[in-house]
Design a protein that fits this description.
The chain folds into two domains: about 100 residues, Transcription Regulator spoIIAA; about 240 residues, no CATH class. It has twelve helices and five strands. Helix 1 packs parallel to helix 2, helix 7 runs parallel beside helix 11 and helix 11 packs antiparallel against helix 12. The longest helix has about 40 residues. The radius of gyration is 35 Å and the shape is elongated. Pfam families: MlaE, STAS_2.
């Protein structure tokens, strides 16, 4: 059936087509009531008449869709467009009465609220306002870090009480990535550091005829300071950045939320294996770094300064005590924990898609390097204070 629409403000306006495409429009008391169906065929046949009905009215106008039986995407788009036009003309345009599937479909086509331009609030901020805002940001970051450490500690406690829940396979994978895969770069860099340190110290000690003490200087410096610190810096740029990028990508792709939905703790299944892997591999890599650093100094001492191999080795062995090695390994364990915790925290704090992942990775590396230097200074002061 097909009929002609009669448009006025006091009686219903009905458009008849197929039974499934029937549309009734009534304009009364500043409200446009729509009922029937807003299907693709019905919109094509009847919407022009509805627009004419609206154009023939004046004053504020709302759109009531409470009596719509069904609606399709085309109908929802046109209702939203009509509401926006009325709003731009200063005539209201509020959509009322949407429920169920009608409400859901209209919500899909409704425009997002206009986001303010980035950093617009900073254009006219005073200096004190900027300091206050940044101070609040730093305080919030510290609070989130404390909460993160608390969650990780709780995950560690639960794993100790129930060892079977520890993700062993993921831990082994991370051990491989942070350990054997990093041996080559750690060995090469620390060997070069040893050669540089040996050459620079030899230039000065040669003036006093004390070339043999190159072995003492290189050995102690590498074992107590440079070995653990250089290894931690390399792992911060290698494994720390990888952790932040991996977890950041999982966060923005909602994989972390999926874990929580399944009742699984991201701290136990994502963070704990990575931190544990670094805590284990850092001391092992530090031992390799110490050996390569000493070999680098030996290459300079024996190759450029004429010190015999036996003399250099005996001088190194006599200058390094067990406490020196243990303090270096203690630093390595702490450095491994610092790299893992900060990198994972930055990764799980990621927001904003791919750009956010890049920012989190950069922030992770910078924060880890800063924390490593601070921690090394604290360790050095404490070991000196207690005579270690």
């Amino acid at each position: 059936m097909a009929g002609e629409t009669t448009a006025h403000t006091t009686s219903p306006t009905t458009e008849r087509a197929d039974p499934g495409d029937e549309l009734v429009a009534e304009l009364a008391d500043g409200v446009l009531h729509l009922s029937g169906s807003l299907s693709l065929a019905g919109v094509a046949r009847h919407w022009k008449r509805v627009r004419e009905l609206v154009a023939g009215s004046s004053g504020p106008l709302a759109i009531d869709v409470a009596r719509l039986d069904s609606i399709q995407g085309s109908g929802a788009a046109l209702v939203v467009e009509l509401a926006l036009e009325l709003e731009r003309d200063g005539r209201g345009g509020e959509v009322r009465g949407a429920t169920g599937s009608v409400h859901a479909l209209l919500g899909l086509y409704a425009p997002d609220e206009a986001a303010p331009p980035p950093h617009a609030h900073e254009l006219h901020e005073s200096f004190l306002a900027q300091v206050g805002r940044r101070s609040i940001g730093v305080t919030t970051g510290v609070f989130e870090g404390i909460v993160f450490i608390g969650e990780l500690t709780r995950a560690c406690g639960r794993t100790i009480l129930r060892p079977a829940t520890f993700p062993l396979r993921e831990w082994v994978v991370q051990l491989s990535r942070t350990g054997p895969d990093g041996v080559a770069i750690v060995a090469l860099v620390n060997f070069l550091v040893g050669t540089i340190l040996g050459f620079q110290s030899a230039v000065q000690l040669e003036n006093y005829g004390a070339e043999i003490f190159v072995a003492n200087l290189v050995g102690l410096s590498v074992v107590r300071e440079l070995g653990p610190l250089m290894t931690a810096i390399l792992l911060a740029g290698r494994s720390g950045a990888a952790f932040a990028a991996e977890l950041g990508t999982m966060k923005v792709s909602e994989e972390v939320d999926a874990l929580r939905t399944l009742g699984l703790s991201p701290h136990r299944f994502l963070v704990l294996p990575r931190v544990a892997a670094l805590v284990v591999t850092m001391p092992l890599l530090t031992i390799i770094a110490n050996a390569m650093g000493i070999l680098g100094g030996l290459a300079i001492g024996c190759g450029a300064m004429g010190i015999t191999l036996n003399a250099y080795w005996q001088q190194t062995a006599s200058s390094i005590e067990t406490s020196d090695v243990l303090t270096g390994l203690a630093k390595a364990v702490a450095f491994g924990a610092i790299v893992g915790v900060i990198a994972c925290h930055r990764g799980l704090s990621t927001r904003g898609g791919a750009e956010g992942v890049g920012r989190s990775t950069t922030a992770a590396v910078v924060t880890v390097l800063f924390a490593l230097i601070i921690a090394d200074a604290i360790f050095t002061y404490l070991f000196t204070l207690f005579g270690l």
